[in-house]
Design goal:
With 190 residues, the protein is α/β, with parallel strands linked by helices. The protein contains six helices and six strands. It has a single domain, classed as 3-Layer(aba) Sandwich (Rossmann fold). It has helices at residues 32-41, 62-75, 108-117, 131-140, 173-180, 185-189; strands at residues 3-7, 44-51, 81-85, 125-128, 143-147, 165-167. α1 packs parallel to α5 (173-180). The chain is globular and about 45 Å long.
Length: 190
């Protein structure tokens, strides 16, 4: 079985632009490409998992999210896949206004990717900027890394919401994962 690092999108690997459907407005956080390259060399599948509830709220179209997904696949060379949840309970667009299994903090996006890629979720990681991300990762059986970059506003506690690691920078992620996974980071580059 393979292992993966799942990444939240907004606030984690790109600057948060609410309800963005325009690839021209996407700006990667410093070091994103290098982090992906380093993790790919460590043998991880790299998968974005993102809530896009703006679709259900009528603020963003499904076509726009798909265009963003295509843009990511074309511009982040080491990215293996991009999963998104368009749902939001109580949204304006009835078709997407449902209580689904894929909206984080539920683990549906991770579980779907695990089936597709035969992933060992116990050897996989989730990196995000809010505690809902941590809960989704824990529910799926992953280890979790919270990027404490000021995105979390609710701080609702709970056993499943406690991250395994808290980092200040995305650029620290490969080192922490390699140390925890007991992969000699230096050997990979020799």
């Amino acid at each position: 079985m393979e292992k993966a690092v799942f990444f939240d999108k907004d606030g984690t690997i790109v600057k948060n632009v609410p309800y963005n459907g325009d690839p021209e407005k996407v700006e990667f956080i410093k070091g994103t490409s290098e982090v992906f390259t380093d993790l790919k060399k460590l043998g991880f599948k790299l998968i974005v998992v993102t809530n896009q509830g703006g679709v259900a709220q009528g603020r963003l179209s499904l076509k726009e999210v798909r265009r963003i997904r295509s843009w990511f696949k074309n511009n982040l060379k080491d990215l293996d896949d991009f999963y998104f949840c368009p749902h939001f309970p109580g949204g304006k667009v009835r078709k997407f206004s449902v209580n689904c299994r894929c909206r984080k903090p539920k683990p549906g996006l991770l579980l779907r990717a695990a089936r597709r890629y035969a992933l060992d979720l116990n050897k996989s990681w989730l990196v995000g900027d809010i505690l809902d991300d941590m809960e989704a990762g824990k529910r799926a059986g992953c280890q979790t890394i919270l990027l404490d970059v000021g995105s979390e506003t609710q701080w609702k506690s709970g056993r499943l919401r406690k991250p395994d690691f808290v980092l200040k920078s995305l650029e620290e992620v490969p080192r922490v994962i390699s140390e925890k996974a007991r992969i000699d980071f230096k050997e990979v580059y020799d």
